Amino acid sequence: MVESNTGLLDVLSARLGAKHVIVDPAEMAGYLVEERKLYRGTAMAVVRPGSTEEVAFVVGECAKAGIAIVPQGGNTGLVGGGVPHKGIVLSLARLDRIREVNAFNATITAEAGCILKSVQDAANAVDCIFPLSLASEGSCRIGGNIATNAGGVNVLRYGNTRDLVLGLEVVLADGRIWNGLKGLRKDNMGYDLKNLFIGSEGTLGIVTAAVLKLFPRPKTQVVAFVGCASPHAALDLFESLRQRAGDELTAFEFMPRFALEIVLKHAPGAVRPLAGDHAAYALIELSSPDPELDLREQLEKVLEAAFEGGTIEDATIAASDAQNTALWHLRESLSDVQGLEGGSIKHDVSVPVSEVADFIVTASRACEAALPSVRVCAFGHFGDGNIHFNLSQPVDMEKQVFLSQWERFNRIVHDIVHAMNGSIAAEHGVGLIKRDELARYKDPVALDLMRTVKAALDPHNILNPGKIVSLGEDLPPALPVGKA
Fold this sequence. Notes:
By secondary structure, this protein is of the alpha+beta class. 36% of the residues lie in helices and 20% in strands. Strand 8 and strand 9 form a beta hairpin.
């Protein structure tokens, strides 16, 4: 056992090389603050192993020394899950190899540090797709996607990250390596261990590689932007499309009027898609690997019937790939431009798809009653019930005054979600920001089971301590106050 923190760092430097054990404050700075700058952590060092074996060595030495480890991928998380509190940051950025692409088995084996876009590109090279797609795909890493069970815009057709993972390689809290890298669709040899680690945010083990599913690359697609009178009308349109298009319905994204207004105001190149204003908008994509399928005709028929029945007010269908991209740009720019409207209190929630319109209306009214000048920006993945229920600061209110009401609005929004049998953590994870909220809304038996699993796999609580469930650690408050 090493005698001090300095001794531990010397041991790690001897194995990894001194340049991969970072202690300079300026070099460490980017690893200590998360994407939204709600939290700033502290660490004794940032360690950058270059292989699974080096990850195992680092974890084993930290376990012997009783030093906490916070695994980190692209550091693009939105809930504080990668923020350290003392201990070390274990960056997986150097584990960035595509180990194998097997187009016949429709699998790709990628290390945890691979940028999501690199995995997508490797799939495209063999005429396949890896369908996980989200705004940060050019910088987030697949290990972080797995650790948070990331969602994105294609969940409606392909599922969450959990649905895209066949096998994992994981370093356990004692430094042992579990090799579960199998590309099997059926494997009933005991417990499904991989699903313990997917969505665990590095609290149970450190994912170092994964076998991921590939799918046939779409050869034809069509995108439309639709104006509706209300979220309920948008939901009616979704149901019509689901009945008519089935699996060809790849995405159904919802935006309110306020969301489109700020995109048109701030996003470079954004062009108004429809002549008039509408209370609600839907961005729709149909796709198929069959190049002979006339998806445009299919979509036109659904939209014509919806227009004649009063479900929609207006629509435009893209006529080229460039127009497809332009319409998607309106949705994909939204997360970035929100910050240009001041402070934002954000909720990543899900409810049953049948309840999603009722939720938007009910929660919007409740928040507007609590603060009449608040600007509700409720958008997201209508087809899987995941809404980013965000609140932009009133134009006449100071940013810090608005953000100080975060907890108040949590109660309003999360109570409504809970009453609808929904989830307060849909696709971003729990991390720090929802840790205490989880204790309020999660079934107590489920929480007890989660703590039991944590204690069994990480008995000394060195893996990302204090995230998801608290075991009494000395950690910062879980709720950010006035720091955004």
